[in-house]
Design goal:
11 helices, Rossmann fold, alpha/beta, 273 residues, 7-stranded mixed sheet, single chain, 2 domains
Length: 273
């Protein structure tokens, strides 16, 4: 895909973003199926603490949490602000969120079942802060979605996206079985889309310190990133073989790990003028 231009600022970064996503056959995921185990996986590193340390919020704020999932961010966030509206396209994820909110006695969370790219200002109204935590990576109409997000936010927008090291061992596994690596668009695409919209965002790398650890090879295979549903039996055997080669046992915890197997997230945020 080529664009002939004279001014780099005229590059249509949203078209580059869409083109790369359209090449990825594995960009979609059955989140209803993943819901039951997602919370356990989501809490394996220090992402949540790092994200909360960066958010600029107060007790009187209303927050729109886009791609809220089962509430691993939404519910602790609700303790810090006046109200949270969580949006997700998964029925099962929202069921888990609402069940946990009831168990914890949380009554300032509202949920909306809808793909986040379909949300409109007319439907949700203004919120002080919009948060899209790990939820925009696979959205094709990205410019339209960002325009809506920016319109909804009164004070701040916070977005986290995959960092360049996030898919390290998954990429090496694809090379191991001779499969072409097709990446998600880089966070620089989104930064440039915002720049061309007249939004001059801040960019920070969240310093995730914890490696992922597993009790068994089978748990490492089923960590949610290798997309077992897209692998045939031979590829699953190859995955097990690959993980047996690269994972070692941590003598302190007895768990399996690899130093390359850790999350990498980029925070992009801006203040509304």
């Amino acid at each position: 895909m080529k664009q002939c231009i004279e001014n780099p600022n005229e590059l249509k970064w949203d078209e580059f973003w869409a083109y790369e996503l359209e090449q990825k056959e594995d960009r979609g995921k059955d989140w209803d199926k993943a819901a039951a185990s997602f919370h356990k996986r989501a809490k394996k590193d220090d992402y949540h603490d790092l994200l909360f340390s960066k958010l600029i919020i107060d007790e009187n704020d209303s927050v729109l949490d886009l791609g809220c999932g089962e509430g691993s961010i939404t519910l602790p966030l609700s303790r810090k602000v006046k109200k949270v509206t969580g949006v997700d396209s998964s029925v099962k994820m929202l069921e888990l969120l609402n069940e946990r909110a009831e168990e914890l006695g949380i009554n300032n969370v509202e949920t909306i079942l809808k793909p986040l790219e379909d949300i409109t200002y007319e439907e949700v109204g203004a919120h002080d802060v919009v948060l899209a935590s790990r939820s925009l990576n696979g959205i094709i109409p990205i410019k339209k979605t960002l325009e809506t997000i920016n319109k909804i936010a009164n004070k701040y927008v916070f977005i986290t996206l995959f960092g360049p090291e996030n898919w390290k061992i998954e990429g090496e596994f694809n090379e191991y079985i001779g499969r072409e690596n097709k990446h998600f668009p880089g966070h620089n695409y989104l930064f440039n889309i915002l720049f061309n919209m007249g939004i001059y965002a801040n960019v920070e790398r969240l310093d995730i310190k914890a490696y992922r650890e597993y009790d068994t090879i089978e748990e490492a295979m089923d960590n949610g990133k290798f997309r077992l549903d897209l692998l045939d039996d031979n590829e699953k055997d190859k995955l097990k073989e690959y993980l047996e080669k690269i994972l070692t046992k941590n003598p302190e915890t007895g768990k399996l790990y690899n130093k390359k197997d850790k999350a990498d997230w980029i925070l992009i945020w801006w203040k509304k003028e």
